[in-house]
Amino acid sequence: MNVAFVLLTHASDEPAGVERAVASLADGLRSTGHKALIIAAGPSRADDGPHVVRLDSIELPRPLLFDDLPRLFEEPGTVRREVLDILTRYEADVVCWADAVVGLGFLNPAPPGARTALMVHFLRVDDHMQQALAHRPDVVLAVSPFMIGEAVRAGLDTANWHALPNALVSQSTVPGSQEREQLRRTGPVRIVTRADPSKGITELLDAFPGGFGRPVQIVIAEAGFELWPGMQADMIQAARSRAAALPDVEVLPAVPWLDVQPFLAGAAVTLVPSTSPETFGNVAAESLSVGTPVVGYAFGHLPTLVGEAGRLVALDVVDGFGHLPALTGRALEANNYSDSAVHLWQAVTSLLDDPDAYHAASLQAPHQVAQHSPEAVAQEFLRVTTGSAAPVSVPGGE
């Protein structure tokens, strides 16, 4: 089976959900005997590898501003023709638009006979999304049942939507019981995130409790896109300035994808303080896979993903608790969530102070994501797009 993914923003080690989902799914397809190509915008990168094709007809600035996207497609004919030519020469059986815009779902340049899939990792109800759906892709792949629920609330027809979870890029060693107990007693609290106001880092640090008594380590990465010029640099600087005034709190540079799971395996708890609902929760899934309990807010997909493998607390949101604000996928408007962040710290302390509850959560954690291997998700992808693979039980799948 020849599968092609279109994601203009693809880059190796990109710290973003859609990019990681596509890369791990493509790996799963290749490991099960299929071919998987990723078509991305230029310019070419030294780390692209043989399975990435860069377009000559469009180049993206780095970082890309979301508000600049419309002007990139003022004359989309050239892009459409180049993508169609690549897909035709590749003899694609399945074409997956990784997004309505940066995945070119709104153009739908599929060759005759190819099956098409549109990924939805965050909900959009703009003209590009309407155009993508009007092309009637064979299947729409939402990243979680939560995402499908948001689409229903937005009034979209979800008859051909299926939930396909993100796959874990790698599998790391799960610490043994003695090591896990030592981590419970003295291990660090760790956070891995990209620099975005919706990730809740400044609110979390503003609510840092006195006398916490253990290290807090925050990895913050810059992605290839942002909401306004300098947003990511501003967020990192804000986190560093707050951390500098707090005992045992440090902000660390980004780590490669394959190092995220080992990093989280060495944590007592992984904190996911996002103040906008996680439509999947990559960091939480990677933490669970190595037996590290997760603490976060009880909305979005996290309650389903984490289950009994951590502690989730309420976030006081006035405009639709548990729903995507204004159905745009953008960050929540600036608010003071420091009171809610206090409850996150309390949940961390409560869990770490309860050995029985902590170890029960740690033992449950890998079971929450046991079927999220690239191979299992790849088989589920083929099942819902072509019917050519035997059904695989994947949590969140249909």
How much is the radius of gyration in Å?
21 Å
Domain count: the total is 2
Question: Briefly, what CATH class of the largest domain?
Answer: Alpha Beta
The CATH homology group name of the largest domain: Glycogen Phosphorylase B
Which features characterize this protein?
disordered C terminus; 14 helices; Rossmann fold; 36% helix; 398 residues; seven-stranded parallel β-sheet
Short précis:
This protein is of the alpha/beta class and 398 residues long. It is built from 14 helices and 15 strands. The strands form three sheets. The protein has a seven-stranded parallel beta sheet with strand order 3-2-1-5-6-7-8, sandwiched between helices.
Description:
The structure is a single chain. This protein has 398 residues and is of the alpha/beta class. The chain folds into 2 domains: 2-167 and 372-386, 3-Layer(aba) Sandwich (Rossmann fold), CATH 3.40.50; 177-368, Rossmann fold. The protein has 14 helices and 15 strands. It has helices at residues 17-31, 69-72, 77-90, 127-134, 145-153, 177-186, 201-206, 231-244, 257-265, 282-289, 302-306, 338-352, 355-368, 374-386; strands spanning 2-6, 35-42, 52-59, 64-65, 94-97, 115-120, 139-142, 161-163, 189-194, 216-221, 225-226, 249-252, 269-272, 294-297, 310-313. Strands 3-2-1-5-6-7-8 form a 7-stranded parallel beta sheet, with helices on both faces. Helix 1 crosses helix 14 (374-386), helix 9 crosses helix 10 and helix 10 crosses helix 13 (355-368). It starts with a strand and ends in a 12-residue tail after the last helix.
